[in-house]
Amino acid sequence: MNDEQKKPDPSTLEKKAAALALNFFYGQKQALKNINLPIYDRKVTALIGPSGCGKSTFLRCFNRMHDLYPGTRYEGQIRLYPDDVNLLDKAVDPIEVRMRLSMVFQKPNPFPKSIFENVAYGLRIRGEKRRSVLMDKVEEALKNAALWNEVKDRLDELATTLSGGQQQRLCIARSLASEPELLLFDEPTSALDPIATASIEELIHQLREKITILIVTHNMQQAARVSDFTAYMYLGDLIEFGWTDDVFFRPKEKQTEDYITGRFG
Amino acid sequence: MNEHLSRQFDTDLTALRSRVVEMGGLVDEQFRRSIEALATGRALLADDVIAGDSVVNNLEVRIDDACAHLIAKRQPAASDLRMVLGVSKIVSELERIGDKARKIARAAAMVSASPDHAWIADIEQLSEGARHMLRDALNAFVRSDLEAAVAVLRNNRDFARQTSQVSNDLVQRYSRNADQVPTMLDMLSVTRAVDRVADHAANIAEHLVYIVRGTDVRHATLEQIEHEALSRR
Q: CA B73 to CA B9: how far, in whole Å?
């Protein structure tokens, strides 16, 4: 019965990261409640849930973005493997963390520089000055972001002259150039048209062979299309986590069922 | 189950379900009348059943089409998706029952030329049993009642024994008489058709397990299905 539906037991998969008993507070308000969530290596994990469920808050814990705002507080851990470091440890420098992880935001945010300089930016910060190395890395990143063919003859033009979808792929190329271990996407296509969205989704599909991806999306069908695992969150709680195929076909929790079938309200 | 935020989606799903029940009622009536034509030898009634099959076929195509449009427009997930896929499977079972009614109506003229009253009495009784199973399966569908669905599957096991008994009797009584073999073959094919109606009703019950549980039990044993359908979630 249903042999073809059986997928490997996730506990046999290698983890890239894991949230362990993670709580997060904005002042008095608790935005994340005891989240335990594995992020499997070279898999795409989607975080879904209604506005205010904590999915973006969760994503931002990974690169310590909350450190920028006073009054926020973490409890618990986010461990990054294979070196098993706690990203939330006060002794861990947030800048270090952000070098290993990379975030792509809702709206494309290219720097007001040339296409080339946008992609080379992270490498220059790390002290890379050799033009040939920069050129190679920029080309590789743009190819991995499926943008190379469109921009290879205009690398010196301002990045802001690109279309929205191209700008978003440029931001992905900029992230990839610094060779992150984990790519964080915060609603990466919500400002894009369906064609540009499809190209980003195709890109995610290709990238997952090489890199671990965690994506927050409001678009449930997008989560269903691009992810291997789905986590459903509600009011700061992790309600359900599992293979995307299972979560979208026969979720275990009624709350998940109501949300993905549009009965939420 | 709560309502969808989109009322139109609820309306579409409810309409889909009621069209399945409508089609179920129609094939049940087609089947009932095919047996009546067989028992009474009324040729006009048999012709009516044969002509009525195209209505059943049209309904299958239209409901399937509605399923395809619902998938295209709503991208249903989880229980909604299983409902739409399950409906598409159920209507094809119903269409096959319609085919069996047509087959029985076609055989009616031949068989009723020299009626075998004992066999006809058996067939009338068997067809009532098959109709019960069909209606039970459809009611189970309407109420998403897995216990009722499992009861249909249990009945089908007994039913298969009864029909094979009737078939064996026919073979025993007729096979020594060579010139009656063609009539016997017609009667065997009607008996087989009635048995298949019950099988299709049982398939509908299996599709309901798929709709409610998300498990495909088409090739499972009755014990496995009972476990899957009746274990608490």
A: 10
Inter-chain residue contact B219 with A262, CB threshold 8 Å: no
**pLDDT 10s digits, B76-117:** 999 999 999 999 999 999 999 999 999 999 999 888 888 899
Are B82 and A262 inside 8 Å of each other by CB? no
Question: Cα–Cα distances in Å, from B229 out to A168, B147, B214, B232?
Answer: 48, 8, 10, 8
Cα distance between residue A136 and residue A142, in whole Å: 10
Identify the CATH number of the domain in which residue B162 sits. Answer: 1.20.58.220
Q: Burial code of A225-254, b = ≥16 C-beta within 10 A, e = fewer?
A: bbbbbbbbbbebbbbbbbbbebbbbbbeee
Check: CB of residue A34 under 8 Å from CB of residue A22: yes
Matching residue, tokens 């993670």: A22
**Residues A204, A215 contacting (CB under 8 angstroms):** yes
Residue B10 sits at the chain A interface (C-beta within 8 Å): no
User: Of B79, B214, B217, which has the smallest distance from its Cβ to A261's Cβ?
Assistant: B79
**pTM summary value:** 0.86
The residue behind tokens 């739409």 is: B84
Which of A189, A171, A184 is closest to A118 using CA atoms? A171
| Domain enclosing residue A201, as ranges | 13-260
Would you say residue B1 lies in a domain? no
ipTM of the complex in this document? 0.78
State how many domains chain A has. 1
